[in-house]
Amino acid sequence: MIKNTLALCMLFCCVSPYVYALDVIAEEDLSAVTAQDGVTVLIALPTNGWRANEISLTDTNGVSASIMAGYTSAGTVVAKNVGFNLCSNGVGAACVTAGTRTIQFDLDAVGDIDGVGGNKPMLNLGFSLANGATKIRLFIDDIRLRNGPSGGTEKVLVDFLQNYVDIVPIGSSSLLAVQLGNEAQGKMLQFTNGNFGTIDFGTVALLDGTNPSNSVRFDLRLDEVNLTGAGFDIDAQGLVFSDANFGKGAMDVTLNNVRIGGASAPSIGSFGVQNISVTNLAVIVSGKL
Asked: What predicted TM-score, i.e. pTM, was given to this entire model?
């Protein structure tokens, strides 16, 4: 034991010229220290993507009797079999899942958001597609109304027969940014590239809750979709979705092959709106007092 102790002491003596004392760093010196510029996180999805059995929103006190008598119990809106996957091909067809296909998060804390100095900190989180991912496939089977938070009777209100929607960004793979603090972009969440071209929902059915065989069915398609610059923020009024030029004067919404009465009902034609443009659009969602 004594030999081991002496050997350890001799080792410390040999390395002592390279040991430094811990000194107190002055505040001005510490303020000049900078770390690496942000953090990048890549998340790879499994082959089948991410899925959830349902996502639900429950109203715990029902509808006011002054609006609709008899609906004062809790009710739940349920989206069934939802999820998403990353693909390396375009709109439609099977989702090609070759390669790693990742979601990229770029996290950075910025103390001077406008480059002119001052104490205006901001946290920026960027979202983009990387490593061969060119398409986001969103899954949803249907939207239901449930009588209560769980275990109650369910009625399908909206059925998405295609069961998925493809989102394919055109141009940049950097899709959106979330900013907390002094938001340089003017919104908490904003689409940095919302140019998605065509979004095809396939056949959508609005079902009769009393007789599900009765429905209004149509093929829903959006063309020239460009949400660049649009986004969400929170203010005293609630959650606000805004866009200085919604639709950009080019977006079309088409309901093709409209059928009323059931799946075998004859088509009454197609309806739609072309070249949509709304200046300074603002949609506010707030709680009811």
From this structure: 0.78
Per the listing, tokens 């998405």 go with 160
Paired residues of 180 in beta bridges: 123
Q: Which helix (H) or strand (E) holds 7?
A: helix 2-15
DSSP 123-170: EEEEEEEETT--EEEEE--EEEEESSSSSS-EEEEEEETT-EEEE---
- Yes or no: say if 149 and 163 are a contact pair by the CB < 8 Å rule: no
> How would you write the pLDDT of the chain (289 residues) with one tens digit per residue?
445 544 444 444 444 444 445 566 666 665 565 555 689 999 998 888 999 999 998 887 766 777 767 666 678 899 999 999 999 987 777 898 878 899 999 998 876 666 666 667 888 999 999 999 999 999 999 999 888 666 778 889 999 999 999 999 999 999 999 998 888 888 999 999 999 999 999 999 999 878 878 899 999 999 999 999 999 999 888 999 999 999 999 999 999 999 999 888 999 999 999 999 999 999 998 876 5
Two structure tokens written together for 178: 């979330």
Q: What is the DSSP letter of 228?
A: T
**SS3 assignment for 47-98:** CCCEEEEEEEEEECCCCCCCCCCCCCCCEEEEEEEEEEEEECCCCCCCCCCC
